[in-house]
Amino acid sequence: MRVLIVDDEEIIREGLAQVISWCELGLELLQPAASGEEALQRIEQECPSILMTDIRMNGISGLQLCERAKTILPDLEVIILSGYDDFSYAQTAIRQGVTDYLLKTSPPEDIIRTVLEAKRRITERWAEKGRDVLQAREEFERKWVQWIVHGEVTEGTIEFLANGLSGDKTINHFSSGCKVLIWEASGWNGPNYSSRLLLFALRNLLQDLVPSCIYLIHQQTLVCLIPADDAQDLPRYGSWSRLLERAESLLKCSIRMAAGSSVANLENAHVSYEEAACALRYLPLLPDKIIKYLDIEHRRGGKNIISPEEENQLGVILLDNDPVALKVWTAQLYENLIMDPECTFETAMACLRSAAVAGHRWMDRTVRMLGSDGEVHIESSLEAEGNGFIPEAALFRYLHAIMSSYHAQVSQGPESHVDRAKAFMESVSLREVNLQHVANHLHLHPGHLSELFKKVTGRSFVEFVTELRMKKAEELLSVSPAKLSEIALLIGYEDVKYFSRLFKKHYGLTPSDYRENRSSI
To answer: Response regulatory domain: which residues (predicted)?
Structure first.
């Protein structure tokens, strides 16, 4: 597929010729033309597929060149380059068959995208002219997906697919075995650019750089079948990581890859695909550009729930309405998961969901303690990606929505200091609760907080804390086999006898009698 650049300014045409690696994009760049007249003399003989021309030139203008060139090559894709951001020119250009309109000041990545879009249109037209070829390609891709993705290998499948290979790709090319790579690409934005277009561009590029492999776009990924001994297929780059870096540089995007292990024969290619798909799930969790199944297969699972300490920290942050601290807490949670060498995708997602549940549990517990009526409505939901991954930004948004909903709907009015004190005590370990600690957290004088408690609740601060500890002790005695001394320490009493006297005064039974009565029910 050939490209002809036409511009009467040498610096422009030479710049366009050199700033883009045309060959590696699968395009042949013809010698640029210095005028419309020169271009017309060469077009019929050189037959370019894509014409990039300045709109204003001495002699024949770009629009005149377009009109005459289209009479010679009706399927010619024309891209107008202009130094003038003039919509009237664009309208005229569109009427005369121009397919794209770019400013000369456009960055290289915009030019690359526009040219690749033109290449895609040309390829689609070629395919439309050969309906049988298109149908054969669709059948090839359908069987390819059945074979590689779903593991359905019927009699004659491999031979059928081998007959559909092009170039030097033959069934013998994979005689030593094969393995599967799965590529993801991102970074092209804008209304006219889809993820599929980027994958189309990546496939075309890889087909030119490593033609010995088989490529297929499947869903939102590019699947690649390569010979088991792939080192001989990368003489120009030496490794897949260097090839990946080169592809990123050419396409101005971000690319990552997951690799399955080698299998001995083509019939088992699905096994390698399953491994690559498993490794693919780890791309959001690990910093590497390339993740091999062999790197993650040994993992047995990390923590799948946040710790009580982390939950307490989260409760305090939500209570303080501190989005900066929430951002730090969320980032630290993800970092801990990433740094855990035993973490699997499943345990990581379970842990992240437990963080969301902890936020909701904090909301319910706090609202219930404050005696508020009804449920608090949260203007958000926890959004996972298609593969089930929960992005850091999604978890932060969800927890931030919980925090905002609480402070907008509950934490209001003249009693808010006392409400915040109650919620804080509910969010931290009871061993840490005392008047000075709570007052410091609320930035109040201890005496003032004590007066507020008496005025709002009718009880002293100490009486409220004692009741809170007794309720927690009752809960622990009902569900936990811990010793009385351990329970006393958990709720803030070092003297187990003092704890027992308070508990009996509150419930009319000693802790031991209460536990025995509960166990007999």
So the answer is: 2-119
Instruction: Report CA 234 to chain centroid distance, whole Å.
Output: 29
Beta bridge partners of 100: 79
> For residue 249, what are the contacts with CB-CB under 8 A and spacing of at least 6?
none
Of 346, 363, 341, 356, nearest in space to 310 by CA: 356
Say how far apart CA 520 and CA 332 lie, in whole Å. 45
* Contact present, 66 and 80 (Cβ < 8 Å): yes
**Angle formed by the axes of helices 392-409 and 345-370, nearest 10°:** 0
Q: How many CB atoms lie within 10 A of CB 235?
A: 8
221 phi, psi to nearest 5 deg: -135, 165
Alpha-carbon gap, residue 339 to 275, rounded angstroms: 22
Residues whose CB falls within 8 Å of the CB of residue 269, separated by 6 or more in sequence, listed in order: 147, 148, 178, 180, 225, 263
Alpha helices of 21-174 — where are they, by DSSP H? 36-46, 62-72, 87-95, 108-129, 131-148, 157-163
Comparing CA positions, the residue from 278, 395, 295 lying closest to residue 346 is: 278
> Whole-model pTM?
0.58
DSSP letter assigned to residue 31: P
User: Sheet of 178-186: strands edge to edge?
Assistant: 214-218, 221-227, 178-186, 254-259, 290-292
> What phi, psi does 355 have (nearest 5°)?
-65, -40
Strands 2-6 and 50-54: parallel
pLDDT digits (tens, 9 = 90+) for 207-245: 888 877 888 888 889 999 888 765 444 546 668 888 899
pLDDT in tens, 417-451: 777 777 777 777 788 788 888 888 777 778 877 88
DSSP lists the bridge partners of residue 79 as: 52, 100
Q: Which two tokens mark 414?
A: 């003249």
What is the C-alpha separation between 432 and 489, in angstroms, rounded? 11
CA distance 49 to 27: 10
Cα separation, 426 vs 513, whole angstroms? 27
> What Rg do the C-alpha atoms of the chain give, in angstroms?
34
Nearest-angstrom CA–CA distance, 517 and 24: 80
Contact at 8 Å (CB) between 81 and 35?
A: no
pLDDT confidence bin for 335, thresholds 50/70/90: very high
End-to-end CA distance of the chain: 83
In angstroms, the CA 161 to CA 152 distance is: 13
- 179 backbone dihedrals φ, ψ, rounded to 5°: -150, 165
Locate 259 and state its tokens: 């690799």
